[in-house]
Amino acid sequence: MSCWTARTVLLVTFVVLLIHQDSQQNVASASPTPVIGFEDYSEEKKGPVPVNESEIGELVNVSRLKEDLQKGMDQLKSDYMKHLSLRSASGSIENLQVDFEGETYTLQEIAQIGRKGPQLIVVNLSSFPTVMKDVLKALNDSGMGLNPQQDGTTIFIPVPKVTKEYRESLAKNAKTLFQKFKDHSRDIQNKYIREVKKKEKEVSSDLAHSVQQQIHSMAELYVSEGEKVMITKQHELLGKD
């Protein structure tokens, strides 16, 4: 082989190597591996929308929104304290709320409450017999796992023993009350989103869309906090650390 031929072969080989290296770099650059920081940005986009109260306040009353959401949270905590306890049920029953003809009363306001032994509570409605149906409903819906028995104008309520099954029943009721709170929070969220939608023609679409997302995020913060309260209460009822 001549000197020129050898040089030509070497030159061609070098060019082929360069082309191969370049193609490998193009493949690498076309791969789905993100650049540094891109993945974090994507995760951020998937997370909750940051809440800017000043921006929300351009379209709805933020103080009223927060107050409405907080009322639901306060009611959840109050229900847990009053109705889901391993202690004697008599104190909870005395303060049980009864709805009657558009008004709300505590049971002790409309009935005489006593005991017949350590395991039986007696509710006497002889002075207000027309409220019997509503009292029974309030007792059955209380979440305390009670089994009231009516005898004329008197209701007998056996006090449940603190068994494993009773604990599990109370823990289940804690979830039911949380779901009620969650539905309430969704209703509040939707109420304020409807307010925003009514103003969509008056403001930019970007602002209207952003505020709706932020209202949703704010409601989710309360729901998340309520779920933590529920889990803590369930652990208390089930005797978990």
Automatic annotation (TrEMBL):
One cellular component term from this protein's GO annotations in UniProt: mitochondrion
Keyword check for Metal-binding: no
TM region positions: none
Gene Ontology molecular-function annotations: ribosomal large subunit binding
An example Gene Ontology biological process: translation
Keyword Signal included in the entry's annotation: yes
Record keywords: Protein biosynthesis, Signal
Gene3D superfamilies cross-referenced by the UniProt entry: 3.30.1360.40, Ribosome-recycling factor
Signal peptide region: 1-24
InterPro entries (UniProt xref): Ribosome_recyc_fac, Ribosome_recyc_fac_dom, RRF_sf
Boundaries of every Ribosome recycling factor domain copy: 76-238
SUPFAM superfamilies, per the entry: Ribosome recycling factor, RRF
Entry's family note: Belongs to the RRF family.
The protein, known as: Ribosome-recycling factor, mitochondrial
Originating species: Daphnia similis
Underlying gene: EOG090X0DUK
